[in-house]
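Feature request, filed as a ticket because there's no other form

It would be nice if the structure record came with a short human-readable summary line next to the tokens. Right now we just get the raw output. Example of a typical job, pasted below so the devs can see what we mean:
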Amino acid sequence: MESPYTALMSGLAIFSDFLFPVLMVVGLFLLLWESVQYKKRIRYLEITLGALSKLNGIQLNDPTLVPPEVRKALDEGHRLKAIRLYRKITGANLKEASEAVDVLLKKK
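Raw output as currently delivered:
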């Protein structure tokens, strides 16, 4: 007959050998799934905000709202770096980023 301590240790061995990695994979999957859902929700809200602002005649492309890293790159004369930074920080596509940087250059 096996002692309670031995039974506990054998149960823990099963947990650490099989169940723990499975739980880690499931946990990582759930975190990834939640992240994807948040990104979809944020994109939906951005589209809705854009539509509402157009309907009300509000322009949200205020160049004063550009991240400071982009302004610094422009001040140093690095247009392409500014576009890359703008895209990375805001998630804009190439055309949007290029237009935003061009607006900033014209206002200089």
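Something like this underneath would help us a lot:
The helical segments are 4-55, 68-75, 79-90, 94-107.
The two ends are 85 Å apart (CA to CA).
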